[in-house]
Amino acid sequence: MTAPGFDADGRRYRGAAPGQRQRERRARLIEAATEAFGTEGYRNTTVTTICAAAGVGKRYFYESFSDSEDLLLEVYREIAARMIESIHAGISTADTDVTTQVRVALAAYFQLIHDDPRVPRIAFFEILGVSPAVDRAYRDVLDALVDICLALLTPHVDHEAHPAVSVRTVLLGLVGAIVIIAQQWVLSDYRQPIGDVVDSACLVVGAVLERLSP
What we know:
Oligomer: single chain
Strand content: under 5%
Structural class: mainly alpha
Radius of gyration: 21 Å
């Protein structure tokens, strides 16, 4: 018996190879989950709801994801990639002056958070306290943000004057401060103008950089 949607050889479905169809279903599930987790919340969303929104049969959900947590991790990775990409794009468009690079990178980061409220809801709130595996993914993203800061700021640190200082530890605290600023901005329903928020974040970064610079 031929499987529904496949030809007699099981190789084609409406002109697309099975692998392509699976990738398309996976992409629709991630898109639907991003919308659901970013608006209704992870804990208020079921696999059935996501499958219905994606137009994907529930049995196909499990060809790509083991459970809803597995899907949350994939959604979070994509959200984090967008955040990191926005920062890198900001840095690449700025000149070589580190102060300008910091400002442009932070402006791009906060602009993304402002333009797509699903991003901060998933990245700052829905991701917390789900499981140890999800907590590890959250820490991995923090580490990636610290790596960006290290690449950008380390050349401006006077290591001889601060031999006992762990620059990575300092920058982890710096990233945490930026994340808290972003979280509070979101929780206030973006009450402050974005320019003021960027100014505040730049002040924090500038204070650390001034203290560590020659």
